[in-house]
Amino acid sequence: MPDTLPPSLLPFRVGPPVQVEALAARFRSRQARVAVIGLGYVGLPLTLALVEAGFHTLGVDADPARLAQLGAGRSPLRQIPAEVIRGALATGRLRFAAEGLAEADAVLVCVPTPLGPHREPDLSAVEAATCRIAATLRPGQLIVLESTSYPGTTRLVMRPILEETGLRCGQDFFLAHAPEREDPGNAQHPTASIPRVIGGTDPASLDLALALYGAVVSRTVPVASADVAEAVKLTENTFRAVNIALMNELKLVFDAMGIDVWEVIEAARTKPFGYMPFFPGPGLGGHCIPIDPHYLAWQARAHGVATRFIDLASEINAAMPRHVLDRLAEALDRQQGRGLRGSRILVIGLGYKRNLEDLRHSPALQLMEMLESRGAEIRHLDPLVPIIPPLAEHPGLAGRHAITGAAESLAGFQAGLIVTDHDGVDYRTLAATLPLLVDTRNVCARLGLAGPHIVRA
């Protein structure tokens, strides 16, 4: 957080007392104006849900190219068709711009919260967005952080920046946390259908946030504070990370025993109580599950508490790409009498999850780099990623083109490695053509494909 704001951000805009109930009524009647900062996998679906609910909505993003793309009715995300963007623009209730936050009655912040170089929270985007809001903050505005962060971020990072304007939180402006729950690519759970947990920094802020979100989503779940709301999101994602780690470890255990872990999971999930299925894989991906447990562990250490369970889960999950690489190397040696060096390997599926082009923290990219470091020649097959875009963490992979997946394009490969099981891939052709197919997702078994050249990893 910056020590002080520039003088231009210190106008001391103290006005008459804000009529909280009147503002809440504007939210409930959808007469209020709402702005969303950050138009990515979280912010863009939220923006469209607000428009669909009837709010006049401003979409703001730090990327001018994205604003121009959206303003022209084109979608930057495959799971949101361009016609949805155009339809929202046609209502007259949506616009995309770099300015205009002062006009909004509510500003929702949906910016990235990655890790720093030492796995510490990086809140630079949250701080920048908060300073941007502070530049035009006026009495009667509700500010809501949706970005995932550690307990205390809304209260201890955002609030001081906003109060440097001279306005008082809970009296002049209002501040809450509503942790995002977007599941990119999941059509079964659209934004408006997902219950939203909401915590305020004070009772008035909570009431206003409940009024706003209650006009957009199917259910709101109030909690005692913004800190509690922040803890809820970290609990949800740490729960997933820990249970995935458990299944990854059980996979290694059962492999050593000659037991099919996938069969075990399918049988166990028939129990109607006391069990929830999680699945092993080649490593964690996406912006949430690999990141959020580290936010919780970092804050726990600041309070003098060790997180041995969380740390162990992170260690197990981080080791899975190495396990996959070892399984591939063993299969090549056993079946073809060759090592990774000089072998042509086809990496199948780059997105971090099925049917999504999102490459954030995808284990496929890590595996590609690991394979090349061992001397393998790598190509990829992914109908959703025809060209790998520039990526800060994997600069050497940018610009690489996918192969088509036709049988003739598969000639000359010694092995295929299924990392992500997209529906749009012809696995039968892969199984019939490639001399070795290593499957980290059990997709071949689901399709009834078997043979000595198909190996689970």
TrEMBL record:
Residues 346-446 form the UDP-glucose/GDP-mannose dehydrogenase C-terminal domain. The keyword NAD applies. It comes from Belnapia rosea. GO terms for molecular function: NAD binding; oxidoreductase activity, acting on the CH-CH group of donors, NAD or NADP as acceptor; oxidoreductase activity, acting on the CH-OH group of donors, NAD or NADP as acceptor. The keyword NAD applies. This is UDP-N-acetyl-D-glucosamine dehydrogenase. Keywords: NAD, Oxidoreductase. Pfam families: UDPG_MGDP_dh, UDPG_MGDP_dh_C, UDPG_MGDP_dh_N. One of its GO terms (biological process) is polysaccharide biosynthetic process.
